[in-house]
Specification:
Helices cover 30% and strands 18% of the residues. The protein is built from five helices and seven strands; from the N terminus they run H-E-E-H-E-H-E-H-E-H-E-E.
Amino acid sequence: MEKEIVNRVTNSQLITFDLEDYYPDGERVSFDISKWLYEGIVLKEKDFRTFAESHDWSQYTNNFVALGCSTDAIIPGWAYLLLTIKLSPFAKKVTVGSLEDLEVLIYSEIILDLPLESFKDKPLIIKGCSNKSIPAAAYVLLVQRFQPVAKSIMYGEACSSVPLYRKK
C-alpha cells in the first residue's frame, strides 16, 4: 500500500513574506544638481533659482526622485528644499541621496506601515530571491518589525530556509 504524499508546508501556518510584493510602481530617478552649478562646483543662488523656475518638473510625475550632486560642491540645505518644493506636486517621493538611499526610504515607510496582527505567533519565511532591487537595509528593518510578534523567522524558500529566530 502506497503512502499518500502530504505537503506539510501547504498545511502549516507558515507565512511567506515577499518584499517584492510591496514594490511600488514608479520610475526611480537620480537628479544630479551639478549641471546647475557654475563650473559644476559653485551654487549661484540667482542662477540656481532661474533654473528651478524654468525646469519642466512635470516630467517627474509618479516618479521617485533622489536628489544629489556628483561633484564635491558644498550645497546649502535650502537648495535641496527648493527642489523638493518644485518636485512635490509631481513626484511620489523625494529624498537626498543615492538611488539605494531612495529605495531604503521607500521600503522603510512600507515596512513601518505594515499591520502586524496577522503575523502574531506565526512562523514566517522572509523570501530572499526577487527580481526587483531590494536593499539589504529593508530586510533588516523587516526582521526588526517581525521579531516581537512572530513565533519564528526564517529566510529563503520553504524547501530550503535558513532559521534566524525562534521565540522562547
